[in-house]
Amino acid sequence: MKDEHVKEEQPEAPAEEVSEEPASPAEGEQAVPKIGSEEATSAEQQAAEYLAGWQRALAELANYKKRTDRDRALWQETIRGDILLELLPVLDDFDRAQGNLPESDASQEWVNGILLIHRKLTGQLEALGLEEINALGEPFNPEWHEAVMQEDSDEHESGAVSAVLRKGYRIGEKVLRPALVRVAT
Asked: Buried b / exposed e across 45-74, counting CB within 10 Å, b at 16+?
């Protein structure tokens, strides 16, 4: 009779053998080939070189984009300045006409129409960034003013602009045309 307390020994299942070959790849995947440590090191170095080259190419592309954006902005500013410079004589003519307008004609409708055109032109040019250089009474600055005469003046300090002969204009800090001025002595 068998002892009820003694367990029957069951044979153990054989341990599964682990193969070094990977399971067959799923559909669409590629099997990873076995490589030695030298080949792995070489592949890692090549991957690092490719990564560095890719990062350099990305940096060069970013720099190229910045450079072209900067060049485009400079080109647009130059073109705008050239166009505005060509329109300044028209603005000068409007200013001279307004300054020489006889009192008797000042109330006529056609004169008001011309003055309206002058205001619209001035507004459009200012919207493009054109600014008049304020010169009268200011100290003479050769960057902003072009002195054509000197005169004795009791109203202005020595070295100050006593009269503006032609208005000067700028875009931002760039002078399109310096103001022609007389300077007090």
From this structure: eeeeeeeeeeeeeeeeeeeeeeeeeeeeee
Can you list the positions of beta strands (E) in 48-185?
A: 130-133, 145-151, 161-166, 168-171, 174-177, 179-184
pTM: 0.63
As given in the structure block, the two tokens for residue 55 are 């990062």
Strand 179-184 and strand 161-166: the pairing is antiparallel
| Cα–Cα distance measured from residue 160 to residue 151, given in angstroms and rounded to the nearest whole number | 10
CA 8 from centroid of its chain's CA atoms: 87
pLDDT tens per residue across span 70-116: 999 999 999 999 999 999 999 999 999 888 888 888 788 988 899 99
| CATH architecture, domain defined by 131-185 | Roll (2.30)
- CA dist 132 and 135 (Å) reads 9
Residue 36, both tokens: 């030695």
Q: What are the boundaries of each domain within the chain?
A: 40-128, 131-185
Burial 107-129 (b: 16+ CB within 10 A, else e): eeeeeeeeeeebeeeeeebeeee
